[in-house]
Each structure stands twice: as structure tokens, then as C-alpha cells.
């Protein structure tokens, strides 16, 4: 078994934090996105979409998409439960993880892809769309701060995959774009400080 990772990239890091929370060690092979190694023939043979992370299993089969990989490890190593504990809790965690993707991760990614120098000449950029998403991010931070007023973590009283998604969003996009929670957003700031202090945050 081997995890293909590009250091610093947010989606592979979602898996690495998940594995750290589970106490699972998996061999890692680095694939450089800046150098375009994810677009080379050898990697595309494993994932034709050219995206990271991927998990190559012992039989040679490959799983891609960070949440799918995390679900695999949740099934094979159920403790601690990061996708929920029963039908209702699993549904609630799935709801909040999806919200973190739609309300945070994707808008942040659109700001990054459409306004940042790294992508100039690599993809078509639409700066106006980036700015539309910047405003969406600002609204989402206010919304999430309010949601965290009455609970410790995003989906309830336990750390879950939803926290990992939001945490990786802030750690990568938020820092690059200087769009982190403001001190006035005290509930969101409290949450971010707490998750950042977990040992898994070093993954």
C-alpha cells in the first residue's frame, strides 16, 4: 500500500491528517504538482485525471479522491470514528463535511486558481470570478463563526472529517490568500486554534 502525496497540497493533507488521527502509518511517495509530475504518463496511468492524492493498494488497484480514501481507512480502522458513530451522527458529519467543501474549500480554491500568480500561464484565469468567490468566503467565515458559538467542533462535540476539511482549507488557501478568520470571529478563531494544536496538525 502506498499514498501518493504532493507536500503542502490541501487534498493530500486531508488524508494525512486523517491517518494521523487514526494512528495509521502508510508509505508515501511524493509527486510534485509545481513540477508537473502529476501530469506525466506514469502517474496518469494510475489516475487519468492527474489529481492527488491517490492510494495504491497491495493488489495494484487505485483509489482516488481524498474523502473516498478516508472512508476506506474508516472502514478498515474504525477507531476513533471520524465519520460518525451511528446513522444520525454519520449523516450529520457527512452534511457538515459537504458544507465545508461547498461553502469553504471550493470558493477558496476558486479565489486561488483565478487570482494567484502560481496559476498564471497554467490555466485560464477569470479574476472577476475569483473576486466573486472572495466575497463568498468572507460571508462563509461569518456564518461558520456563528455556527460554532454553541459547539466545540464543526459537526458537534467531537473532531471529525468535517473539521479536517475546514482545517486544511484555512491552512493552505487561507494562509496563501491572507483570508483567515479575523480576531472578531472569536468562535471560529477558538476552533482554529484548537484544531491547529492537535498532534495530527503536523501531518
Can you give a write-up of this model?
The protein is α+β, with helices and mostly antiparallel strands. It folds into 2 domains: 2-76, Glutaredoxin; 87-202, Glutathione S-transferase Yfyf (Class Pi), Chain A, domain 2 (Up-down Bundle). Helices cover 52% and strands 6% of the residues. It has helices at 10-22, 41-44, 66-76, 87-115, 127-147, 161-177, 186-196; strands spanning 2-5, 28-30, 54-56, 62-64. A 4-stranded mixed sheet has the order 2-1-3-4, with helices on one face. A hairpin with a 5-residue loop joins strand 3 and strand 4. Helix 1 runs parallel beside helix 3 (66-76) and helix 5 crosses helix 7 (186-196). The relative contact order is 0.14. The model has no long low-confidence stretch (mean pLDDT 97).
Distance between termini? Answer: 18 Å
Rg measurement, Å: 17 Å
CATH architecture classification name of the largest domain = Up-down Bundle
* Helix content range: 40-55%
* SSE string: EHEHEEHHHHH
Features:
four-stranded mixed β-sheet; 2 domains; 6% strand; alpha+beta
Describe the secondary structure blueprint for this structure.
Blueprint: E1 2-5, H1 10-22, E2 28-30, H2 41-44, E3 54-56, E4 62-64, H3 66-76, H4 87-115, H5 127-147, H6 161-177, H7 186-196
Parallel strand pairs: 1-2
Antiparallel strand pairs: 1-3, 3-4
What is this entry, summarized?
This protein has 203 residues and is of the alpha+beta class. The protein has seven helices and four strands, in the order βαβαββααααα. Helix 1 (10-22) packs parallel to helix 3, helix 1 (10-22) runs antiparallel to helix 6 and helix 4 runs antiparallel to helix 5.
Amino acid at each position: 500500500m502506498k499514498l501518493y502525496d504532493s507536500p503542502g497540497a490541501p487534498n493530500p493533507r486531508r488524508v494525512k491528517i486523517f491517518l494521523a488521527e487514526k494512528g495509521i502509518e502508510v508509505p508515501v511517495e511524493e509527486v510534485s504538482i509545481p513540477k508537473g509530475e502529476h501530469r506525466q504518463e506514469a502517474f496518469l496511468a494510475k489516475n487519468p485525471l492527474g489529481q492527488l492524492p491517490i492510494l495504491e493498494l497491495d493488489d495494484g488497484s487505485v483509489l482516488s479522491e481524498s474523502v473516498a480514501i478516508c472512508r476506506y481507512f474508516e472502514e478498515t480502522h474504525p477507531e476513533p470514528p471520524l465519520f460518525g458513530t451511528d446513522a444520525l451522527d454519520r449523516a450529520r458529519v457527512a452534511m457538515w463535511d459537504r458544507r465545508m467543501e461547498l461553502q469553504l474549500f471550493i470558493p477558496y480554491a476558486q479565489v486561488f486558481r483565478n487570482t494567484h500568480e502560481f496559476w498564471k500561464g497554467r490555466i485560464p484565469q477569470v479574476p472577476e470570478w475569483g473576486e466573486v468567490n472572495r466575497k463568498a468566503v468572507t460571508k462563509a467565515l461569518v456564518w461558520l463563526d456563528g455556527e460554532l458559538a454553541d459547539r466545540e467542533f464543526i459537526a458537534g462535540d467531537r473532531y471529525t472529517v468535517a473539521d479536517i476539511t475546514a482545517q486544511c482549507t484555512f491552512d493552505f488557501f487561507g494562509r496563501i490568500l491572507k483570508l483567515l478568520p479575523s480576531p472578531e470571529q472569536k468562535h471560529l478563531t477558538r476552533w482554529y486554534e484548537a484544531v491547529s494544536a492537535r498532534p495530527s496538525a503536523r501531518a
